Amino acid sequence: MERHRSVGGERDNPGFDSTLDEPPVYQEADHRTVRPSVVSAFGHDTLDRVPNIDFYRNAGSVSGHRAVRPSLQELHNVFQKNGEISVPDTVNDDDEGSDGTPSDDLESAIPSDAKGGTIKFGWIRGVLVRCMLNIWGVMLFIRLSWIFGQAGWGLGIVVIVLSCVVTTITGLSMSAICTNGVVRGGGAYYMISRSLGPEFGGSIGLIFAFANAVAVAMYVVGFAETVVELLKDNDLLMVSEINDIRIVGCITVVLLLAISVAGMEWEAKAQILLLIILLVAIVNVFVGTFIPVTDRKKSEGIFNYQSNIFLENFTPDFRDGESFFSVFAIFFPAATGILAGANISGDLRDPQAAIPKGTLLAILITGVTYLGVALCVSATVVRDATGNATDIITAGMVCNGSSVAACELGYDFSSCAVEKCKFGSINNNQVMTMVSGFGPLIIAGTFSATLSSALASLVSAPKVFQALCKDNIYKILHFFAKGYGKNNEPIRGYVLTFIISVAFILVGNLNVIAPIISNFFLASYALINFSCFHASYAKSPGWRPAYKFYNMWLSLAGALLCCVVMFVINWWAALLTYAIEILLYVYVKVKKPDVNWGSSTQAVTFVSSVSNALSLSGVEDHVKNFRPQILAMTGSARSRPALLDLAHSLTKNYGLCIACEVFEGPRSETLEEMNAGMEKNQLWLRKSKRKAFYSAVACNSFREGAESLLQASGLGRMKPNTLMIGFQRNWRTAGIEAVQSYVGVLHDALDFEYGTVILRTNHGLDVSHIVEAEDENEQQALDKDMMPNGGKAKGLFSKSRKSKQVLTTRVSVCGPPLQQDDKMNEKLLEASSQFKKKQPKGTIDVWWLFDDGGLTLLLPYILTTRKKWKDSKLRIFIAGQPGRCEQDKQEMKSLVEKFRINCTDINVIDSINVPPSADSYKKLEDMIEPFCLHEASRDTAQAGAMRKEHPWKITDQELSTFEEKTNLQVRLNEVLQEHSKSANLIIVSMPIARKESVSDFLYMAWLDILTKDLPPTLLIRGNHKSVLTFYS
Amino acid permease/ SLC12A domain location, by residue (predicted)? Predict the structure, then answer.
């Protein structure tokens, strides 16, 4: 059965690797599965396929089930009846991407159940449990009573609610982002990078992974401090307090690392055990508030539920310089565990459903728990207590001051107003232990809270770091991208996290680093919120989150709120966080990683561009804002580098430059080559840092293509106004049609009121034959490297660019002969890069012979403002009448000064009208001899017949009519040779040939003789509309 092919015998591959210099020609690999077409639901045999999810999977899928739909060409091209129709339906990638490297395509991955032994978690174990454990920290058992003692339960509720508002908004934004497509591993990094691009994602991913690694040390030190406190109470210290913290901390991290490396299943089991202990401890607090209190507890300020205690604890009582913001700063880090589930997104069975459900429910449960525990303590514990059972109220005492509630309950704690007491919610961090039904359970709960948070961070940091390294944004870190085992565990990342954690544990005191880590987490939250806002603001059709309960303005408010909270927690830590993030952002921006994730930044850029283009269209052009917008006829982007470099120097980052190519021939033969080259040429322009666009058309002739480009290029006011083309050096051998086409393009440019610029260099401009030879050699070497298995290429297609007959004829306006020796090629290559280098000290000679609106003067001035041309000074030459040279010079000097253009010299040439020398004219005669009709020596009938047979030839009448203009071009070359032979660049006013009066070959002779044997020369003719003004 034969395969239905498109024209050219090759089918388009959606997995085409656009990073190569040339588009590969794909050949079918032996292992490719080809299924015959089926009688579809439409009742007939067809190449068309019904919609299927497999068509939308990423290229380079690891699953081996990426389907390839028929190409448009296969359905649209002329049908070739070869029997039964067939088309490849499914392709196998042998677990490799299209570039031959292992691919990690989660979008098209095999369902988890189909992979033997792979562990995937649901929303409860994977997200809810992890988030709750991370949010329920030591704050719950040690600092919560102090916070409500300082702020009162009125402002205490505000502290908790405000924290929950920040985390809830972030949760809503995260839910919207993660339901807008399949989520891979990497959690916050993945969501931010895919939404805002690699610059934001790469910067926040690195500091977020680092923050999680240091957070491990923070939680472990908290655990170690509790253990050492117990050892100290029982007089069991090993060395000293600080060293015991280090010893216990290091041992703990080793054990946690062992659990993590053992696999996600063991880690999940450990988390469940810790959750049970934590839940029992929380319940223990509530139970303890209902157990009747002893006299000893009452002396320590602990009572059963009392309304007067509850009311007394309503108002704030800030002490020791504390304020609402400082108390909030201490509590908020307890709420920063909401990303614990998202961080292991790669290990979730269904991240899109699990992350929103688990995260938001965890925020609700933990928020209610914090409020419930805090309110219970506020209703049962007074702020100050002496702990002395004898401090009771005697008869006749009046209850006033700060301990009214205790006084009413029979205890006198008024001495606490004079000296600091050891008991009460504001003085003792062990209030929860004393309130609870069984104190040791609170210690166990504290252990559970610290260890669970440490374990979650120890898992999160390597997972996020591995995802960052896989994207290869920081190439030096790619070593850590490798995963091991059935779950692709980041063992190298675990080891790095372990080293970082131990390093900070050995410091022992993390009070300085703690606010920085909190700010790192907050920066992540801010960017998640901003990502949601940005994607919504861009209104990209690709932004279609399944989760609808979000609002773009609420997300923006959440982002701003996170930024404010960063400064509330610690202003210098916030500034440091911003500084680190900006530095990393700039680094990634400069490195320009070769990734394209369809970020909202691209969408907003597009929207802004359209908006700006529309705004610009509503404003009339003004001469002060004129800048050259160049349509450069370069052929392919690499064919004429000198022409492109000079055009780029004129436009740089401030104007439009379009590199254009015309594919000449029947459309059926040219379209394939043109389409294949579009992305390739634009990619080359970007990689070579040429700020230009590439445009191509397929037409029957070069002139038709150029005419289409002249008329249709650009958008609104952003359209070309200057044509730049290379001089056709081979015009005498190119043939009649080629010359007529070339001169016709010049006529068309003037008809469409374009400024026209022609560049001529001695060695020519076209290096396409050298580029093609280099590409062919490179591809042959590449083909050898890609066949390690006895010559059999791996992957979906074997890539090759076999030497084949070019399907089209490309017009070369300055092409060298096909056979050239190495020496000529070396000179041509050297000349082709002359405008890419910094120009030596010298001059740009401007021969402003005719007033064309000022373009002939403006373009060289623009060149002198560029870094490469700063050592080249302007010299202006004008034609003057004999006897008034000084007057002409002063007039030109005055005009140039009014234009505010600096030039080193103004020269008036009064000998231009002198007839040229016989030798010079002889060169012109030899040049045009083959194209002259010589009809004057024949009779009238014969002359008429000759003109009819050769209408393109130069007649004797034409030579006579334009004798003076012809002599002028010859004489100008003599003057140029005399005055500008050593210039870096010569600018000359381009002569105009009147249509249907000057033949094409005579006009080409004018251009040739004018610029012959000179340094690089630009012939310029503006559209005779002013581009310079001396008005402000």
Answer: 126-631
